[in-house]
Design brief:
- The chain has 371 residues and is an alpha/beta fold.
- Helix content is 32%, strand content 23%.
- The protein has two domains: 4-289, 3-Layer(aba) Sandwich (Aminopeptidase); 292-370, no CATH class.
- It has helices at residues 4-11, 23-31, 75-89, 92-100, 111-116, 137-149, 190-206, 226-232, 252-271, 355-360, 362-370, and strands at 37-44, 50-56, 61-66, 101-106, 153-159, 165-166, 175-178, 214-216, 237-242, 288-289, 292-298, 312-322, 325-335, 342-348.
- The strands form three sheets. It has an eight-stranded mixed β-sheet, with helices on both faces. Strands 13-12-11-14 form a four-stranded mixed β-sheet. A two-stranded antiparallel sheet has the order 6-10.
- The longest helix is centred in the C-terminal third of the chain and has 20 residues, at 252-271.
């Protein structure tokens, strides 16, 4: 049995951490990879930033991954670098993967969005809604690479917001998966079924590390989404969503878990034992809910008398780029009394119980008092 956590600690690229990840940070790491890796510029962004791919392995099974299609979704990029470092360091498992697979990765597809820390590209286009029109250079590069490489599997790597919980439980959706639909009826084709089996395999491993914290992303069909489009091309495609782990807003714990999911999934692909993972178990993974706030403040009327009695306030952070660092700026929302929500942190103003904690969050305290 592989100890994935111990393995990750040995290969984590510690020079790159936090939420802000751009070309200039990752290129020095890519440049020092050994000769097993082919690193090349495959095109340029709207603003002329290079987009690089990394290709390695000489096996017959081809796996294609891309990360930071949305520029502010960097957790999977960090996990990709850790995976590259795992292969670079060499081990029996790494050599087995190199012998069994050929893997091509685009670590940052949207470098302009990464630099500005925005979801969209420099033309304010969501690349994950541009799969059919391919109106943007980044979309053209992604599809051209897909067409040239002709992968057997695709890993579509993303982050999701802190609002997501697993089913109706108070567990955060730390990792979510989706086998994208290939038609409006969301029928299960052979390749979509393979995607489901691979997700079952990765979920089985993750449950040993984060029991109850794996969710299933909504599978509504949209032909403009890249995952749906590649599934329509009869290529098993898996959407990875990096979510919130308690007290991990820098997403370093989630980074480790995405690494574990990727490596365990690739191991199953390499070993070609998907038949051990029943497709039906995919539907046992609960769908994501949207029941979390970053902070719940109960009995907020004890601080602000303009609020209703027993009023609960929900706080959501807006991720804001200031001087190349991400700041978490709070915004407030009043919650109706009969609504059920969870907080990653829950504070109670009744009898001044958590008042000092709130005051210590000066920006939040000022906002609460002024509303």
């Amino acid at each position: 049995m592989i100890n994935y956590k111990q393995l990750h600690s040995a290969v984590k690229v510690n020079s790159i951490q936090g939420r802000y990840v751009i070309n200039d940070m990752i290129f020095p790491f890519l440049d020092q990879l050994n000769t097993n890796f082919q690193v090349e510029v495959i095109g340029n962004s709207v603003l002329g930033k290079p987009i690089k791919s990394v290709t390695f392995g000489n096996g017959p099974i081809k796996i294609f991954m891309w990360s930071q299609m949305h520029g502010n979704e960097s957790t999977t990029t960090k996990a990709v670098l850790d995976f590259l470092n795992f292969i670079n360091q060499g081990s029996d498992l790494a050599q087995t993967i190199l012998n069994g697979c050929t893997i091509k990765i685009i670590p940052i597809l949207n470098p302009d969005g990464a630099t500005a820390y925005t979801r969209v590209n420099a033309n304010e286009i969501d690349l994950n809604r541009d799969a059919q029109d391919r109106s943007q250079p980044e979309s053209v590069i992604l599809r051209a690479t897909f067409d040239q490489f002709q992968p057997d599997y695709c890993f579509n790597l993303h982050d999701q917001r802190t609002i997501f919980n697993v089913g109706t439980t108070p567990k955060p959706a730390t990792v979510s998966f989706l086998a994208p639909a290939h038609d409006p009826e969301r029928s299960i084709s052979k390749t979509r079924g393979i995607s489901m089996q691979l997700i079952v395999a990765m979920n089985k491993v993750l449950q040993t590390y984060i029991p109850g914290q794996v969710g299933r992303y909504d599978d509504g069909f949209n032909a403009n989404c890249v995952g749906d489009t590649f599934q329509m091309q009869n290529k098993p495609t898996i959407l990875f969503e990096s979510g919130h782990f308690p007290n991990d807003y820098e997403r370093e714990q989630t980074r480790e878990l995405i690494f574990i999911a990727m490596l365990s999934g690739i191991a199953v692909i390499t070993q070609q034992n998907l038949e051990e993972y029943p497709q039906k178990d995919y539907f046992l993974i609960p769908e994501n809910g949207k029941l979390f706030y970053d902070i719940l403040i109960k009995n907020a009327d004890f601080v602000n008398k303009s609020l209703q009695k027993d009023q609960t306030i929900g706080v959501l952070y807006k991720e804001t780029l200031i001087s190349e660092k991400i700041h978490f700026v709070p915004s407030l929302e009043k919650i109706k009394k009969n609504d059920t929500f969870f907080g990653h942190i829950t504070l109670n103003c009744l009898n001044n119980k958590d008042l000092k904690k709130i005051k210590d969050m000066s920006e939040l305290w000022d906002l609460l008092c002024s509303n």
